[in-house]
């Protein structure tokens, strides 16, 4: 597909210090998602991507080219980037600029993750794991093919791409034990981050706006217990 016809980006942060730990990055948000996690804080672009104007590809390419001297990293997040069949074409174009690319994904499309990695189009993957795999759909607000999620995890754990896994811990939805079950499933070598729930903008399920995040001391205790199980915890929240 010609690049000019590709309309997957609904948001663009030109410079960010917080979206890729490795350094300064630009962040591109794709619209739409195949999950409906009730705690999602990007609900508006998930639920109704057409409400948001598209960032034209020629603008993206122009900005990234201008910034290339000081911003060498690009984060592709969403929504869920891998629902877009045009993603490989986009990443080929971005790679042509010489940037490094991090993919944020819910892991629902292992075939695309695998082919992007094999083609050298992604340098790093951050995969959200929503909770223990058994009964996975209850974390995601919709029916989910758990085998595909498991395949993505397996591909990444076998060294398919440098990666980390992240889990947002949500009171009422998760018990603390759910976090430890995920960490044990991933194994001690998996880089793992526990993320705080943020009730702002939980438009996919407005009831979640009334849920207070776990207090700081509970989150610290969870992180301490994660450190006991995992050899590779990541200390920051993102
Ligand atoms: S949190 Fe869930 S619904 Fe929101 S973008 Fe991620 S996978 Fe999609």
Concise synopsis of the structure shown:
The chain is 32% helix and 18% strand. Strand 1 and strand 2 (25-30) form a beta hairpin.
The structural domain count equals 1
CATH architecture: Alpha-Beta Barrel
What is the average per-residue confidence, as pLDDT, rounded to a whole number? 94
Ions, cofactors and other ligands present here are: iron/sulfur cluster
User: How would a textbook summarize the main sheet?
Assistant: 7 strands, mixed
- Provide the spatial order of strands within the biggest beta sheet: 1-2-3-4-5-6-7
Beta strands, count: 7
Determine and state the CATH class: Alpha Beta
Radius of gyration: 17 Å
- Strand proportion, as a percent range, falls in 15-25%
Shape: globular
Order of helix and strand elements from N to C terminus: EEHHEHEHEHHEHEH
- Continuous helix count: 8
Could you name the CATH topology? TIM Barrel
Helix content: 25-40%
Low-pLDDT ranges: none
CATH level-four homologous superfamily name = Aldolase class I
Terminal CA distance reads: 33 Å
* Classification by helices and strands: alpha/beta
